[in-house]
Write a structure and sequence with these properties.
The structure is a single chain. By secondary structure, the protein is of the alpha/beta class. It folds into 2 domains: 134 residues, Rossmann fold (3-Layer(aba) Sandwich); 256 residues, Alpha-Beta Barrel (TIM Barrel), CATH 3.20.20. It is built from 13 helices and 16 strands. The strands form 3 sheets. Strands 6, 7, 8, 9, 10, 11, 13, 14 and 15 form a 9-stranded mixed beta sheet that branches. Strands 3-2-1-4-5 form a 5-stranded parallel beta sheet, with helices on both faces. Helix 10 links the parallel strand 10 and strand 11. The structure holds S-adenosylmethionine and iron/sulfur cluster (2 copies). S-adenosylmethionine binds next to strand 9 and strand 12.
């Protein structure tokens, strides 16, 4: 029985976490006539993703004598299947452990299982000719970011068919870094902007980076999404040419551009490119005061995107991860593994001809903050074409030493987007 059939037979579901993934699971249940008995969230007042806020409640206080002594007679939800939908694997594990310690037995919390469930649903819709591709849904779906499973439906939509027996090499996501330049200098930026001296700045040559990308694409079967980023990607003088070329390459799903929203691209033709149905512009918001110069610029950009019918998302963040200094931590093998496994910043970044696991690894090496661990990246530019596929396959499986020089994403946080004060 696949997971979707299990859900149908249980028909008593609790969704824990009313974020984007929680919302997808709720829609899945509705479309399959599955009863959702409760939607729990630790901060129901802060929930943005659910249209019907009245359905969301705080989970019961597990410490208040709740648990072992409860029975399904006193608490009917006790038998429910709880689907824990927090994106952070670490948080999901902690929540599942706590539920288990209080006697709940049916818990689904592993990201790959949740992805499989969503894939099963789309497969069923497709078999019944009811599936309609919706990039906004796929954008937030954890299945397309899963290293371990392939969503055939998503792949087929992009003309990529994987045969059962074939070896398949794909990247769920790949960052394409165009420039180190940025108009802002945020404290704790994961592209290390607050560690740059002026002379370190560079716009990478379009010919070089496009030929790196072409070579990489020749070696793999699919890149589900490419994230064009900087620094601030819109500052690259050849941004338009680069985007046009990226959109013309085969084996790429969709193209995301992440921007702070304060650099307005010049000319109309670039907006025409941005309105391509495979493009999503993501604007990062840093909680600045309404009316501030930054917010005014961002609002102007957002207005233009809306007028042109361009698909965009605005992501407000109050807190960022504190990745910490660059010294080598004395981590046990287990701690190192956990650091990497729980990290939500693995983005396979193509930076100046090198494919790194994350931007910290790429920028850390570029600025000589992290040692040159040669096995941490694939040198796409200098590797012979016939060895590249194997090297990328190995790269997908490996854990970078750079993680010894990082706090990862489960520790301290810092306020998002605070600017470095310029010296007088
Ligand atoms: C490094 S920025 C580059 C793109 C663009 N300049 C921007 O700010 O959107 C890419 C994304 O990383 C996020 N980011 C930067 N530093 C971060 C940190 N320490 N923790 C979490 N997110 C961070 C930003 O909010 C942004 O959404
Ligand atoms: S997070 Fe801030 S400093 Fe870093 S690239 Fe984006 S806008 Fe620039
Ligand atoms: S160095 Fe490791 S833990 Fe730190 S951001 Fe990169 S992948 Fe994550």
């Amino acid at each position: 029985m696949n997971l979707l059939s299990q859900l149908k037979s249980n028909n008593n579901i609790i969704i824990y976490g009313a974020g984007k993934i929680g919302h997808l699971i709720d829609q899945l249940c509705q479309e399959n006539g599955i009863n959702v008995s409760a939607i729990w969230d630790n901060n129901p007042d802060k929930v943005l993703e659910f249209p019907e806020k009245e359905r969301i409640s705080r989970p019961p206080k597990l410490s208040d004598g709740f648990g072992e002594h409860n029975t399904t007679e006193t608490y009917p939800l006790f038998n429910a299947l709880i689907i824990v939908t927090m994106f952070s694997a670490d948080t999901a594990i902690k929540v599942a452990d706590s539920l288990r310690a209080h006697g709940f037995k049916n818990i689904l919390y592993e990201r790959s299982e949740i992805s499989s469930l969503l894939i099963d649903h789309c497969k069923t819709l497709s078999q019944n000719n009811q599936y309609e591709f919706d990039l906004d849904k796929c954008f937030i779906c954890p299945a397309r970011r899963d290293d371990h499973i392939e969503c055939e439906i998503f792949n087929q939509q992009h003309g990529v068919i994987k045969k059962e027996t074939d070896e398949f090499v794909s990247l769920p996501v790949m960052g394409f870094l165009l420039t180190t330049k940025c108009n802002l200098t945020c404290v704790g930026c994961n592209h290390l902007r607050d560690h740059f001296d002026k002379e370190d700045n560079i716009d990478f040559s379009k010919d070089n980076i496009l030929s790196d990308l072409r070579k990489l694409l020749d070696a793999v079967d699919f890149i589900k999404s490419i994230v064009i980023v900087g620094g601030e990607a819109f500052m690259h003088p050849d941004f338009e040419t680069i985007l046009k070329k990226v959109l013309s390459f085969p084996k790429i799903g969709f193209v995301q551009i992440i921007s702070n929203g304060t650099v307005m691209p010049k000319g109309n033709s670039v907006f025409e490119l941005l309105s391509n149905s495979r493009v999503v512009v993501e604007i990062s918001g840093y909680g600045e005061k309404p009316g501030s110069a930054r917010v005014k610029k961002r609002d102007k950009f957002i207005k233009k995107l809306s007028e042109k019918g361009i698909r965009f998302r605005y992501d407000e963040a109050a807190q960022w991860f504190d990745f910490g200094g660059f010294h080598k931590r004395s981590l046990t093998t287990e701690e190192f593994e956990t650091n990497y496994k729980n990290c939500c910043f693995v983005s396979n970044d193509l930076f100046n001809g090198q494919l790194h696991k994350c931007s910290r690894s790429a920028y850390g090496l570029y600025l000589n903050k992290i040692n040159n661990y040669e096995n941490d990246y694939v040198d796409i530019r200098s590797t012979e074409t016939n060895r590249l596929r194997k090297n990328i396959k190995d790269f997908i499986k490996m854990r970078p030493m750079a993680c010894y020089h990082c706090n990862g994403t489960t520790g301290k946080t810092i306020p998002a987007g605070v600017q470095v004060l310029k010296k007088a």
